[in-house]
Amino acid sequence: MRKFWCLFFMFWPIAAIVYSAMSPAYGWWFPGASVTELGQRIDNLFYLILIIITVVFIGTQVALGYALWKAAHNKDEKSHFSHGSHNLEVIWSVAPAVILLFLALYQMDVWRDFRVKAYFPEGTIESPIAEVTARQFEWRIRYPAPGKKLQLKPQPDDLYAVNDLHAPIGRAVMIQLRSEDVQHAFFLPHLRIKQDAIPGQVIPIWFKAEKKGLFELLCAELCGWGHYKMRAQLTAEREVDFQDYLKKLQADQNYDGFPASDSVAKKEE
Ligand SMILES: [Cu+2]
């Protein structure tokens, strides 16, 4: 039985290491390569941290195993209590502090480009493409009418959609994130974007999708019983298709049940 437990507890660290080593090749961490350049930089940071953690994990497990092994084979010596080692304590306090400080400084430019408004790509702040409002349990999207700018307050000619966010590819775009009720999290795993939506706050997010496609948009914050239903999509498409989509939304919203020519005649009456 003793052997079983020994093998049992040895199995999990080994399984964790094998899993970590295999994950990048199989895409188990993230779904495929990032669709944005900034996302690739975030991935690089993630893998750097993963490597550091793996090295530390293997190191500490091997040291622990060695200490146990040595103690188990040294039957003559009685156990003794030690007050501790000042030198060791200094080493294991300073080493992690240095690693953390390095990471804090090293990730700064990615953080700055992602979050600091002054560094957002040109043109994004002035003309957000949409406002996304999270609510229990859906994503409401508000676009300005074609040719107009998004205002903070809803306008009569604004365009609305639910659970389907469209964005053009090849240029940096910004959206305004809000929440209507509780805390949600706007998560675009393919773009490596995750941002909490907080009631009472308008939070800007920018991204530059490089690839066309449909990408998952999820809520990553347990927000109530219907949390699982907050699955939406981002449609990344060419600029012309994006403009066509807005025009189609506009036509659909202005549809009054009459053919176009009739409705003109009706207004003139
Ligand atoms: Cu939610």
Detail the topology: elements first, then pairings.
Elements: H1 2-26, H2 37-72, H3 86-106, H4 108-115, E1 130-135, E2 138-143, E3 159-162, E4 164-168, E5 173-179, E6 184-188, E7 193-197, E8 203-207, E9 213-219, E10 231-237, H5 239-254, H6 260-268
Parallel strand pairs: 1-5, 4-10
Antiparallel strand pairs: 1-2, 2-3, 5-8, 6-7, 6-9, 9-10
Bound molecules: copper (II) ion (CU).
For this structure, what is the CATH homologous superfamily of the largest domain? Answer: Cupredoxins -  blue copper proteins
Using only CA atoms, what is the Rg? 27 Å
Helix content: 40-55%
Shape: elongated
CATH first level of the largest domain: Mainly Beta
Strand tally: 10
Output the structural class.
alpha+beta
The percent range for strand residues is 15-25%
Report the mean per-residue pLDDT as an integer. Answer: 87
What molecules are bound to this protein?
copper (II) ion
CATH architecture of the largest domain: Sandwich
| Widest sheet, order of strands | 3-2-1-5-8
